[in-house]
Amino acid sequence: MATGVAGGLTRSRRRFPRGAAVTLVLLLLAVVLVPLFARLDQQLVDLHAASLPPSLTHPFGTDEVGRDVLLRAVYGLRVSVLVGLAAAVVSVTIGTLAGLAAGAAGGTLDRLIMRIVDGFNSVPHLLFGIFIVALFTPSTTAVVVSVALTHWMTAARIVRSEVLTLRARPFVDAAISGGSRRLRIVRRHFLPHLIPHIMLAAVLMIPHAIWHETALSFLGLGLPAHLASLGNMINDGARSLLAGNWWASLFPGLFIFLPTLAISALAQYWRDRSNPRWRSELQL
Amino acid sequence: MTRALGRMAAWRLAFTAPLLLVVTLGMFVLAKASPFDPVRQYLGDRALTTSPEIARQIRANWGLDRPLAEQYLTWLGNLLRGDLGESRSMHRPVAEVIGERLGWTLLAAGCAMVVMLAASLVLGSLAAWRRDSWADRLISGTAYANEAAPVFWTALIVIWIFAVRLRWLPPGGLTDAASGTVEPADVLRHMILPVAVLAFSQSSWLVLFVRESLITTLREDFVIGARARGLRERTVVVRHALRSALLPFITLLGARVPELVTGAILVETVFSWPGVASASVQAALAADFPLLAALTLLATLAVVAGNLLADTAYVIADPRVRVLGVS
């Protein structure tokens, strides 16, 4: 999967990954600007131009029904990023609430929540995700729910362990001696300290969420087939692969591969700079 | 040692039973929240022509008109007695479907694990030993890229290169479509690509892990000592450094079962391999709850077994854990 293997390219670690940043910015610009300014219809079917290999007019070629793969891949990335973003936000929110409750309450509630986390972790993510989407009609909501329910545990673990270290800090003691209630400590003292960790967890969750969405869509269980998501495109492309049309599935895949690689390079850089201890904790 | 092991295994098992219970309950609740009507699903096109009387009869036969708690207990009771129910999409008992397919998954996944272990150990050690050389760059660079590439995408590229362009190997299936029997040689030929892709997709973390771990170990005093005593470089790296570098890897391996399941689901589907993992996708596409639930439970069991195996291996491998107990 994507980010967070301990170690790696030791030497390049300290340098800022410029290539990764440029790739990410270019892709984001394309995702935001192309739908705004381009007067092109990504759903335009042109059967005369079906299954054309990459050329100057169609840099990524065309698919089975003559739609431009580059244009559709940009729209697909847009859909995947939006779904990934939504799923990351939902899952990190659930994780934060669970982690906060476990860390701040302690005792039985803590143990109960952590056992639930263990329970969720012992069902393989994709299979659990498949289980969830299978039982509901294919929709964006089903995919977001599926990703969120299978990915909240990491955030919960991180938030809980941070809260446990915060609990021992003097300013928390001071707040308690000053008469603060538990809820106030959580709101005023824990949350502000947790925000950077939560943000990083959310950013790192995005490639995972995109991967998950793409895998579900690829299996035919994700977003509705008419939506140009990257997974749907690879799935469509796979059908004409045996006829030699490699471009219809290769290029959409590149649009998952490159941003994931870029985000993981940036995250690695950020993590090493800010807190080396995180490398082992965030084995996403 | 046996006592420590026994205690740990017992502790794990004690945790497993409630865990599985929670998983079954969760699945059941989700299935009940589903908007799909299993009877309609089962009837398919016939739903339009079947009289409501018969539909009600099926409903009663399946116990769908009973209260929810009773339905769950019946289902759970049947599970415990080994009756996994009837697959609604394949119209056969679930146990039969799993029995037929499990072997193929174990065969492919097992071979992939062996290939992955052997290749990762060799490549990871090579990268660590010749650190910052072009070989290291190539190996760790590929491992990094592999981490970011979705396995189904890698699988499609591999199919395109080896099956479509080069025509060396078949693009999928268990045997040739024309052959009616299952010949070992034929299966072997069909197995190469899926096993290679599964092994490759699972290998990147292990390559990076072996590399990092060995690099750290190679700096340690006992390795310097071994070198100073004039031992051969190969002996130093393989016998001294690698051995102690691999200790944590045993636990990590067992903890990787969920990723293996995920990989197997995608690879089996791309290559139309008739295993249990691809069956879960087929079951999901048909909203076949009995089959899907049984497969999810099976995967959960595999994960728990993997964890237990990892802990057991660790106790056996590390004398400190053996003597002082699991901390």
How many individual domains of chain B?
Answer: 2
Major sheet of chain A? none
Gyration radius of chain B, rounded: 24 Å
Shape of chain A: elongated
Oligomer: heterodimer
Instruction: Report the C-alpha radius of gyration of chain A, rounded.
Output: 22 Å
Helix proportion range of chain B: over 70%
Q: Main β-sheet of chain B, in a few words? A: 2 strands, antiparallel
Helix-strand pattern of chain A, N to C? HHHHHHHHHH
Give start-end ranges of low-pLDDT stretches of chain B. none
Distance between the termini of chain B: 15 Å
CATH topology description of the largest domain in chain B: MetI-like fold
Q: Tally the helices of chain B.
A: 15
Average of per-residue pLDDT values of chain B: 82
- What is the total tally of β strands of chain B? 2
Bin the helical content of chain A: 55-70%
Strand content bin of chain A: under 5%
Mean pLDDT of chain A: 81
* Topology pattern of chain B, helix = H, strand = E: HHHHEEHHHHHHHHHHH
Corresponding CATH superfamily of the largest domain in chain B = MetI-like
Subcellular location (chain B): Cell membrane
Membrane topology (chain B): Multi-pass membrane protein
Family (chain B): Belongs to the binding-protein-dependent transport system permease family.
Organism (chain B): Microbispora hainanensis
